[in-house]
Amino acid sequence: MYDDDIRLQVLEIDIPEKIFVFGKWNEKNGTETHLNYLGNIISNESEVFKIMTSSWFWGLTKKVTNIILVYTNDNKLLGNYYLDSSCVLPHAIKNNKLIFKQSDCNECSNNVAEINIYNGKPGPFYLGCRSGKGSLFSFYQSL
Fold first, then answer.
1. What three-state secondary structure class fits 20?
2. Is the dihedral of CA 74, 57, 20, 124 positive or negative?
3. What is the value of pTM for the model shown?
4. CB 120 within 8 A of CB 47
């Protein structure tokens, strides 16, 4: 199965906050993908965006590539955010905001970040405990 196929499969199942695992990593040549459909974020203009996280495990040392995927309401990939570690993956959406639980990764117990949606397109978001102790994540558009 290709990435697009398994991602669409998870969107069609439509169960928020459940991790689906595809493949099985091993040291020789295996890869493993964890997908988590978090739910929807709604723009100021009532446009619906579906949010999913993806963790792809690969390579001899089980490296991981983490991204937040943003889909339109009709399941077309709009784009994504590349993340610098699994510590910054959101776990839920509450009140139109991404919820991050990072207590295992740094001094933060909980973080909340909002994906700014202007003119119907997601923009960058900042995640950090205190000013100067975080990261700005940019949106990379696919369409």
1. strand
2. negative
3. 0.87
4. yes
40-59 pLDDT tens trace: 998 888 899 999 999 999 88
Q: How far is CA 34 from the centre of its chain?
A: 11
Tokens 């590539």 belong to residue: 65
Task: Flag whether pLDDT at 118 surpasses 70.
Answer: no
pLDDT of residue 71: 95
| CB-count exposure of residue 136 (10 Å: 0-12, 13-18, 19+) | exposed
Q: Chain-centre distance of CA 35, in angstroms?
A: 9
C-alpha 98/C-alpha 107 separation (Å) is 19
Question: Which tens digits make up the pLDDT trace of 16-39?
Answer: 999 999 999 988 888 999 999 999
Give the pair of three-digit tokens for residue 5: 């196929």
